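Schema walkthrough. Field components (list of strings):
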Amino acid sequence: VSNRVITFTTDFGSADAYLAAMKGVALGIVPDLTLVDITHEVPPQDIAHGAFVLGSAYQYFPVDTVHVAVVDPGVGTRRKAVLVVSPTGSFVGPDNGVLSYVLKDYMTFDQVQFKSTEFARPVVITVPSDCQVYELTNPEYWHHPVSSTFHGRDIFAPVAAHLASGVQQENVGESIQELVFLNLFTLRRSDDRVEGEVIYIDRFGNLVSNIQKDSLPDREIVIELAGVTISGLSRTFSDADSLLALIGSHGYLEVAGNRGSAARRLGVEVGATLTVRRR
Amino acid sequence: VSNRVITFTTDFGSADAYLAAMKGVALGIVPDLTLVDITHEVPPQDIAHGAFVLGSAYQYFPVDTVHVAVVDPGVGTRRKAVLVVSPTGSFVGPDNGVLSYVLKDYMTFDQVQFKSTEFARPVVITVPSDCQVYELTNPEYWHHPVSSTFHGRDIFAPVAAHLASGVQQENVGESIQELVFLNLFTLRRSDDRVEGEVIYIDRFGNLVSNIQKDSLPDREIVIELAGVTISGLSRTFSDADSLLALIGSHGYLEVAGNRGSAARRLGVEVGATLTVRRR
Amino acid sequence: VSNRVITFTTDFGSADAYLAAMKGVALGIVPDLTLVDITHEVPPQDIAHGAFVLGSAYQYFPVDTVHVAVVDPGVGTRRKAVLVVSPTGSFVGPDNGVLSYVLKDYMTFDQVQFKSTEFARPVVITVPSDCQVYELTNPEYWHHPVSSTFHGRDIFAPVAAHLASGVQQENVGESIQELVFLNLFTLRRSDDRVEGEVIYIDRFGNLVSNIQKDSLPDREIVIELAGVTISGLSRTFSDADSLLALIGSHGYLEVAGNRGSAARRLGVEVGATLTVRRR
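Field assembly_structure (string):
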């Protein structure tokens, strides 16, 4: 029997004891786990940021992996704690949109278009048909006493460890049909142009947009961002002298600097508008 | 047989090779270890900081875990290298106070009151009766040649791995009866007030004090810190508009900002005085 | 059977999903790997820096460890992807010098002296006789589709996992006889003096030079750096009041501040000249 894998995506940083406490609790339940950090450098309480990082990593893990996502500004309030079981992994975390990229992968293009709400606003969706969702209501699988400020340690990590040890998904709580989802993927499209937003900026200053390859007009394109125009798609980061656009390893259209930060050069932040049109 | 767990708490950061060298040495002795980072972001040579983080995490790990603590400004000098075996875990590290929070958990309230010495000063204590302590004097379990600057790699990690592989605690060195302890927990108390210090500031800017729940006058309290007064205890970080006080997930009285850093707002550092009194 | 160990040395940082994607791919191939981070804090695209950290850590790991090194500014261009098998470990990464410290350990002192080229310049060398090198040309062991921007995830991590699972080294690609090597180790020597460079600055501000113990005139030495003169070698960081020199735990001559950053005090960067002469 192989070790089961649990991953962690949090805004805890790596300086405090929070993360280790979660891992200790999990190892106390199942000693032979393989624990993998996705990231702990999510900016404090930035749910959309954490959602992106988890959404860019989970699909590379074995399908029996349990992913723990804790970016949880509403801890101790009425926000639900949930388990989402998808065909490509199981996920535990707060019901606040941190699983949006996972859910999106099981929604149609039309389902993720919320034209009347602004970028990054939470909306309530029906659970995609390929997924099952449970509210974590069964305290049998929690670490007691349960604090009101640290459900990562007291609810999410122990539930994940119990799931990894073979506890059935139905046992962790009540099946539910609705979830919070962040409106990060709405595009404005016409015949010859598509408009989206910068959804993520990585360590290298690359600007990742919410425009996926399938939504591009064709390969003869021009990208506009922050008053700058980029012609065509590059294949590698070495292809252009300064700014370039390419389909990044996440599968999204990305604006990058060749050996320098595009974010710094353009002064662009998450939420900035990006337009792609036919040349 | 399950993998044995070794944890690491250091001030090495994550940029250099020091940590990996320790892990490599440990895996060379026992290939099937589960290695967990508690933190490596202890500010360089800040023993009290490292002691707090380890002290907030160790109790969540299986009791047969071996914890390695290396915040070691005196490496290569006469300071002892020690193994502390407690009912809730084994610990290897320098005898400089980095295990103070672990030891405190086995001392009475009166034993941790050192009224005549200043905050954070090292004192010498007798080993608590539930613990056994050994000076690491047996070179059989070290990595050779032993450097004079990196005992983490050459003494602490290999001893931890040998302990995890089943070496008996008595074999690593001589039993000793005294240890260095940091005076972090002394409170000034009267009938209706208790005065302590800020002992830790976390990533979110939360100010953790050395006042535990048991030492509070009662629930109708007022907290004073840096000229600010906070009334009563909150249950979650969302309960108040700006500054709030609560019993944090570490079990200590903590002053936090709701969605903002209390440390930055108050300009407070470790060592600042905090007073709790009856309303 | 023990878990096989794979290590990672990258410039990916710990904030983005890149590292987790690599680990997920590896665990998808071999679920029972032990994954160890050497560092991900290599400054972006700083090949020499990454080479130093890997070169300071690999020798402490079991010899059947597979080390993955991804500091890869040329990803997607013609630079080769390689496997280096040495007597003390296997290494996969781009052929851009990131394995220079590993190769150096199998070269003679004369072989690493490239007097006509400047510090840190890439040169082409013949593979050392104790090593075998393969260009990664067999797509059977890659993760598909292969992107042009992220060979860490698509080539290096899956090849490492397949090697860890027992795939023979000959199967990953064609044997090659030449490699890129960074000229980091050239010293200027005369009878009573040796001149080298600062090759690395660690978290503590210690200045590591490329002068190894064997190259020192004798123990009665004077070290000159940035207009400052240090007499003799110390044994520990506590031995001197301010600046001191010692043979660091990496085996190189190092200039350190006692409880303070020597780099900051001297205003020195990588590449600075350091002279050792007889007193």
